[in-house]
Amino acid sequence: MASDRPRTSINAWRPPVTGIAEVFHAHFTDHAYPAHTHDTWDLMILDDGSVDFALDRRRHEATGNTGVLLLPPGVPHDGRTVTASGFRKRNLYLNDSVLPQHLAGRAVDTPVLSDGLLRCRIDQLHTVLAQAEDRFEAESRLSFIRERLHVHLAALRPRAPGREANRLAAELRQLLDSRIHPGLSLHEAAATLHAHPTHLIRCFKQTYGLPPHAYLTGKRIDEARRLLLDGDRAAKVATAVGFHDQAHLNRHFTRHVGTTPARYQRTRA
Is the pTM of this model over 0.70? Predict the structure, then answer.
């Protein structure tokens, strides 16, 4: 007789985002991890169920969808299900460009973080990573996760935008306007303008009322509308304005304009 228990399911990939070595989504019903270590940081959120694990020979348990688990590199840990229904989890394996390894000792003491804002940001990043085309947004969201983790591990508080906010925002806007088609990475923008990534994003949002990745998407949509009304095919328009492909254009165009590019184009007089 076949078991009524749900089967294990796994999905893993490597996104084109600096700092993320792997994304791993899984539903485990009876799997038990043996003691092992990683070269990367393991940042995990639970969507359902409970997990029992040992980190550096101390046992911990995480339950529900409110906390965040952070397992440091090089420290032995295991893991196992607690209930018959198992648990669902989403992991980000982060290299030391996100978190330096010298913070590992502090992470051992408190591997389970009760931080609703951090969990929300991780959840949002996973949503973006499932659509691999939005690299600038993924980098932006990762930068705020990194900042929040540094608050926990190194007590570093973010700096609020000051008198330089409008200047930095205007310089970033000019940079984005010049790179609508090819785009650019957040790290490239931050290096060009000599500003920390999260500080740069805060300055832009304070000045213009939206984050830079949303501004760039809006500029691309505006240009796509012009080209569609000129009669260009949607597939050609997508790559011409900087989207990954037509599906990428369709998703953002429908969200911004309320209809698909094809239907929008058919309304031409």
Answer: yes
